[in-house]
Amino acid sequence: MFTAAIARPEHRELLHGAVTGILAAALSIVAVGVLGVNGLHLSVTYVPKALLVFSAGAALVLLVLPGSHRFVRVGAANHVTIVRGALVALLAGLLGEHGTPTLAWIAVVVASVEMALDGVDGRLARRCGMASEFGARFDMETDAVFVAVLALLVWQFGKAGPWVLLSGLMRYLFAAAAVLLPILQRPVPSTCRGKTIAVLQMIALIVALAPLCSPAVSSGIAAFGLLALVLSFSLDVVWLLRRPAPHAA
Q: Is-contact 172 122, C-beta < 8 A?
């Protein structure tokens, strides 16, 4: 399937643009990672870990892109999301590293930049008239991995108990439930409530990660974010269960 997509001229141009952006981001990961290893005394496995996470996401992007992106060019919005993916990979590389206050602050800064860019790609796609199913899914999955990595870092730095990992698992638990209950596979309309709680969840985890917060305070903040996320997913499930099936309508 992937080979057939490359054979089409329009797909070759599309994939060439994607590969160019991905390689540029990968080189940036290497450069930043080397600085981290030398300046912050990170382990020699930091760069390979970050590249492994980024490469896995890049492979999925190149596999799905030709069939779900109706434009010839990748678009500036998706390039922004690729940069966001690189930032998430840099954060993921910190998993397993020795936690220090300095490292926690750096993680907070990187996570804050990633979250700020989260509001850029969607607006850019709409402004350029290049909104697509691929772009929306790319953005959503990047957000999901971002939250999962943040939750793992909060736990790793001792700012909350293992229960905080549920924040990163909610998206995947919902997907697993949808396999068992096909009714949950139907699309859920985008709502202000959903967007607000998604941002609230990210902010809660970033604040919880900050060294200024004691474990007691950070646990409370992370728990508040998790409860809000559970409420949001619960409302979505109730909406889907109450909505009649298409054939019934």
A: no
Residues 18 and 61: beta-carbon distance below 8 Å: yes
Q: Which two tokens stand for residue 179?
A: 């396999």
Per-residue pLDDT tens for 47-99? 999 999 999 999 999 998 888 877 888 888 899 999 999 999 999 999 999 87
> Residue 1: its pLDDT value, please?
44
The DSSP line for 139-183 is HHHHHHHHHHHHHHHHHHTTSS-GGGGHHHHHHHHHHHHHHH-GG
pLDDT less than 70: residues of the chain:
1-10, 244-249
Distance (Å, whole) CA 122 – CA 77: 7
Non-local CB neighbours of 202 within 8 Å, separated by 6+ positions:
111, 115, 118, 143, 146, 147, 150
pTM score: 0.90
User: Residue type for 173, please?
Assistant: L
Asked if 66 and 73 count as a contact pair (C-beta separation under 8 A), the reply is: no
Q: Which of 44, 232, 58, 62 is nearest to 147 (CA)?
A: 232
Tell me how far apart the alpha carbons of residues 183 and 37 are, in angstroms, rounded to a whole number: 48
The CA distance from 248 to 94, in Å, is 50
